[in-house]
Structures are given as structure tokens and as C-alpha cells.
């Protein structure tokens, strides 16, 4: 680790923490690999790949939904001082397929790479009206843009996705870059050109498993209550600002697994060893999850978790 990083107190995650993950769901530990065959009623395995920050790829081999992709990750100085240019080749190499791309909120570390990914794959960009303004700025055609105010089921191939209105967490006591876009921002944008817009927690229902994506550390109790899920992708940064964060998530959603996200600094190259965000207590987060009776699946960046799907999953 460079000296300047040590001087400002950056650390890397303890590799032992990854071992807390359920070995049966971890391909690195010899878990099953999805091999859906044409004509199968239901792919038996769902793969969730972590992209760093709040990014995930959810795929059963037949259908792929991507959430909050952000692979470009310029360094700290470039992020703060220059327009942010998506790394088209990197996006194509690491996310070759997508049917739909869902945006939790429109901050740069959640949306910057989404329009490029949609352009390369033909996927739709689905998110708030602010997220759609970002897609327009990047040149996506109307047929690849879908705005939602949440609370509506949206067909995504054989799956259903639904945005639940939510809130942005407080980082060091304040909500960064609040507000909405009512016109396309400059493209490529600077960090401050992208306010968060409506925040959406995404529920992805594959027919066999239900996955909730919470990309910022706050939420609205009445929106989440009663939406039972199998897996929650849960933001780590800012969780201390929300009293009973993990406890209330588990009370509302009753998940079996929680995959922590948004715990790294997002300024290291995506294929390099990540640094922990200052203020993120990852061991404490994992302990809180376990204390609620849920299995934490801490996943390395670009690592994967595999889940068996019940036999009635997918299209008939
Ligand atoms: Zn944000």
C-alpha cells in the first residue's frame, strides 16, 4: 500500500473476513456452477457477482440484470477534478451481457458506467427520472430508457423488478449532492453534475429467489415492510447514521443472506486490491448481521456467489 494511503489511515480488508461467507454459495470454495441447457424449465442456479461499490450482476445464465455498475473508478484526484469518462473497454470486458440495468440513485459511483453498458449490450437503463436524464446525456435512445417513480412491477424478461422509494444515507453527517435533474447534465460529467435524484431500493424477483438491493444506508420502513426476500445486497457506508439499520432491515425483509456492499474506497482500479472506506467497520457490520440470525456473504470485488433456485423458478 502506498505511504500516502497509510498516512491518511486507509486499510485493506482482512482476507479472513471473506471466509465468513457460506462455502456452499461460494464458487471459490467449490460451489456448483450454473449450466442451464436450452429448453430447461428453470435454471437451477442464480449467480450474483459483486462489482465493487454498490454494483452487482445477477444472472441465471439466461437472463441478466445489472445494478449500479461502476467499474471505471478513476483515482481520487481525477475523481475530484476532472470529467469522469467511462472506461468502455473495461466495461465490455467485465460485463459482456446485460438485459436490464437498474439504477438505485444517480450519483456518479452508481450510474457513470450504466449508459455505456446499455449501449454495448442493448439493455434498458431503468431508474428515476434523474437517472434517465443521465442516459439521455450519454446518448441512449428513448427505447432504452425507462423512468419509474417506484411501486410498480416492471417485467424484465421472465423476471419482475420493482423499485421501492428510499432515502440516501448520511455520509459524515450530510447527504452528498442532493436534488434532481430536469435536463441532461454535461457528458462526460463531473462528480457534482450528478445529484442522487429519487433513491430506489430494487427488488429483483426471479420467480425462484427474491433479491433486494439497498445501495445507500437509509430506507423508508413503510416501503420495505412486508417485502420478504432471500438475499439483501446491503450498503455498508453510513450505516452508523441510521439507528438499528441492520436490525430493521432484517425485521422487514427476513433474508437468509446479506451481501455487504459499498465498503471500498472506489478509487482503486477494480481489479486491484481494494481499500476499506474510512469509517466502515466491516467486522462490526458482519457481526451485526450474524447477530440477527442472517448469514453474511462478504464477497471480494469481482467475486461471485451461487444460489440454488427452487425448482419452480423461471418460465414454465
Ligand atoms: Zn450516493
UniProtKB/TrEMBL annotation:
Gene Ontology molecular-function annotations: hydrolase activity
InterPro entries to which the protein is assigned, alphabetical: RibonucZ/Hydroxyglut_hydro, UPF0173_UPF0282_UlaG_hydrolase
Top-level taxon of origin: Bacteria
Keywords of this entry: Hydrolase
Protein name stated in the entry: MBL fold metallo-hydrolase
Amino acid at each position: 500500500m502506498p505511504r500516502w494511503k497509510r498516512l491518511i489511515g486507509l486499510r485493506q480488508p482482512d482476507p479472513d473476513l471473506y471466509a465468513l461467507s457460506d462455502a456452499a454459495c461460494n464458487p471459490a470454495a467449490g460451489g456448483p456452477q450454473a449450466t442451464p441447457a436450452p429448453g430447461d424449465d428453470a435454471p437451477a442456479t442464480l449467480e450474483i457477482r459483486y462489482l465493487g461499490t454498490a454494483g452487482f450482476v445477477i444472472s441465471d445464465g439466461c437472463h441478466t440484470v445489472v445494478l449500479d455498475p461502476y467499474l471505471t473508478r478513476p483515482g481520487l484526484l481525477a475523481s475530484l477534478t476532472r470529467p469522469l469518462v467511462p472506461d468502455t473497454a473495461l466495461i465490455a470486458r467485465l460485463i459482456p451481457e446485460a438485459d436490464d440495468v437498474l439504477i438505485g440513485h444517480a450519483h456518479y459511483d452508481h450510474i457513470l458506467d450504466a449508459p455505456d453498458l446499455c449501449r454495448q449490450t442493448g439493455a434498458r437503463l431503468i431508474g428515476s427520472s434523474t437517472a434517465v436524464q443521465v442516459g439521455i446525456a450519454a446518448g441512449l435512445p428513448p427505447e432504452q430508457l425507462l423512468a419509474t417513480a417506484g411501486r410498480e412491477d416492471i417485467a424484465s424478461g421472465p423476471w419482475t423488478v420493482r423499485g421501492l422509494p428510499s432515502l440516501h444515507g448520511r455520509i459524515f453527517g450530510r447527504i452528498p449532492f442532493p436534488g434532481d435533474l430536469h435536463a441532461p447534465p454535461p457528458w462526460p460529467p463531473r462528480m457534482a453534475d450528478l445529484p442522487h435524484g429519487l433513491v430506489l431500493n430494487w427488488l429483483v424477483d426471479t420467480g425462484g429467489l427474491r433479491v433486494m438491493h439497498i445501495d445507500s444506508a437509509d430506507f423508508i420502513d413503510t416501503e420495505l415492510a412486508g417485502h420478504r426476500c432471500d438475499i439483501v445486497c446491503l450498503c455498508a457506508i453510513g450505516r452508523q447514521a441510521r439507528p438499528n439499520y441492520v436490525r430493521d432491515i432484517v425485521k422487514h425483509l427476513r433474508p437468509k443472506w446479506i451481501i455487504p456492499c459499498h465498503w471500498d474506497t472506489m478509487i482503486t482500479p477494480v481489479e486491484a486490491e481494494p481499500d476499506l472506506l474510512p469509517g466502515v467497520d466491516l467486522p462490526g457490520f458482519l457481526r451485526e448481521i450474524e447477530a440477527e440470525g442472517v448469514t453474511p456473504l462478504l464477497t471480494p470485488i469481482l467475486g461471485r456467489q451461487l444460489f440454488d433456485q427452487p425448482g419452480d423458478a423461471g418460465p414454465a
